[in-house]
């Protein structure tokens, strides 16, 4: 888990530093599907699971915090390169993912279970709003 966080944050940092050079081109490596399956779903599941089992120690809270950071940064990654589907609805929903992820980060930092569950509810809404037009062709996201 921590290795994945370090890799994603290192990638984001490299993209940020690299964007300062004029000849740098941002290249999105993962597809939207890979990003959703490999990072967004796993990170959001960690946040959702707080409703089933509250973290009981520093390590468990750190895992929730790290997952929330990954989720927030994933919204930024959805706004890069060939992942962008359009400049209106797609970008607005990606920004909403950033914002709901940031809410989860703050809740994890405060160890506020109620606020974390509220952030989780926001994440579900954001994900479903995106899945309907872009992934599911208008169908609702299945409840797991």
List keywords for this structure.
single chain; 144 residues; mainly alpha; Four Helix Bundle (Hemerythrin (Met), subunit A); 5 helices; 69% helix; globular
Detailed description of the structure:
Helix 2 (32-48) runs antiparallel to helix 3 (58-77) and helix 3 (58-77) packs antiparallel against helix 4 (89-110). The protein is 69% helix and 0% strand. It has a single domain (2-135), classed as Cytochrome c/b562 (Four Helix Bundle (Hemerythrin (Met), subunit A)). With 144 residues, the chain is mostly helical. The two termini are 22 Å apart. The chain is built from 5 helices and no strands. The model has no long low-confidence stretch (mean pLDDT 87).
**Number of individual domains:** 1
Order of helices and strands: HHHHH
Q: Which radius of gyration do the C-alpha atoms yield?
A: 15 Å
Mean pLDDT: 87
What is the strand and helix layout of this fold?
Elements: H1 2-18, H2 32-48, H3 58-77, H4 89-110, H5 113-135
Helix pairs in contact: 1-3, 2-3, 3-4, 4-5
């Amino acid at each position: 888990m921590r290795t994945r966080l370090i890799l994603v944050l290192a990638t984001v940092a490299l993209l940020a530093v690299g964007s300062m050079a004029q000849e740098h081109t941002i290249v999105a490596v993962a597809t939207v599907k890979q990003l959703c399956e490999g990072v967004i779903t796993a990170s959001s599941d960690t946040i959702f699971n707080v409703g089933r089992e509250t973290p009981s120690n520093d390590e468990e809270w750190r895992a929730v915090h790290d997952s929330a950071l990954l989720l927030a940064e994933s919204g930024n990654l959805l706004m890069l390169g060939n992942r962008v589907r359009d400049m209106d609805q797609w970008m607005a929903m990606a920004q909403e993912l950033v914002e709901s992820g940031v809410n989860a980060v703050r809740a994890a930092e405060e160890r506020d279970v109620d606020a974390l569950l509220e952030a989780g509810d926001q994440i579900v809404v954001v994900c479903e709003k995106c899945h309907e037009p872009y992934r599911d062709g208008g169908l609702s996201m299945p409840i797991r």
